From TrEMBL:
Protein name, per record: Lrp/AsnC family transcriptional regulator
Organism: Dorea longicatena
Any one of the GO BP annotations: response to amino acid
SUPFAM superfamilies, A to Z: Dimeric alpha+beta barrel, Winged helix' DNA-binding domain
SMART domains the UniProt entry points to: HTH_ASNC
Stretches assigned to the Transcription regulator AsnC/Lrp ligand binding domain: 68-141
C-alpha cells in the first residue's frame, strides 16, 4: 500500500480536483481503495488541505503578496516554535517557514495593498519580543506558483509537411 499512497500523493499534489475514478484507472487500482487511502491520509494529516491557485492579476482585485524574512532569538526548550506559532495565528499570514541563512524564518503575507502589508510588519510582526529584525520583499509578478506556470507559454508550431 505504501507505493499506492506515494502515487496518490504525487498526483494529488499537482491535480487536487481529480475524479477518483480517473485516478484509480491511472494508478491501476479501484475507486474504493483510492478513496479509502485518501481518507486515511487526511485523518493522519498526511494530506493537510487542498488549494486553488488563482491568478489575482486577472481578476482586477487588489491583492499583494510579500515575503518577510525574520530574525528571531530562539528560546530555551522551544527554539523557534513558540514565535512561529504566534506568527501563524495572524490571519494575514499564509505561510511560515524555518529557513537557513542570514534570517531564521520566512513569512508569506497576503494583503490588499502595499501599505496594509507594511503596517502589518511594523505593528504586529516587528514588535514581537523575540523578533530582532525583518526584511520585506513584495511579490511583483508570479511566473510560476505551486508548480503551475502563470503566463501563456508559446505553443509549439509544427511545420507543414507537404509531399
Amino acid at each position: 500500500m505504501e507505493e499506492l499512497r506515494k502515487q496518490i500523493l504525487l498526483y494529488l499534489e499537482k491535480h487536487s480536483r481529480v475524479d477518483l475514478g480517473e485516478l484509480a484507472v491511472l494508478l491501476g487500482s479501484d475507486e474504493v481503495t483510492v478513496a479509502n487511502e485518501i481518507s486515511a491520509m487526511e485523518r493522519a494529516k498526511i494530506i493537510c488541505g487542498y488549494h486553488t491557485l488563482i491568478d489575482w492579476d486577472k481578476t482586477g482585485t487588489e491583492y499583494v503578496n510579500a515575503l518577510i524574512e525574520v530574525k528571531v532569538t530562539p528560546q530555551r526548550d522551544t527554539g523557534f516554535d513558540k514565535t512561529a506559532e504566534r506568527i501563524c495565528n495572524y490571519p494575514e499570514v499564509s505561510a511560515v517557514y524555518l529557513i537557513s541563512g542570514d534570517f531564521d524564518m520566512m513569512v508569506l503575507i497576503e494583503g490588499k495593498t502595499l501599505q496594509e502589508v507594511s503596517k502589518f510588519v511594523s505593528s504586529k510582526l516587528s514588535p514581537i519580543e523575540d523578533v530582532t529584525g525583518t526584511s520585506t520583499q513584495f511579490v511583483l509578478k508570479k511566473y510560476k506558483d505551486h508548480g503551475t506556470i502563470m503566463f501563456g507559454q508559446k505553443k509549439t508550431e509544427r511545420m507543414l509537411v507537404t509531399p
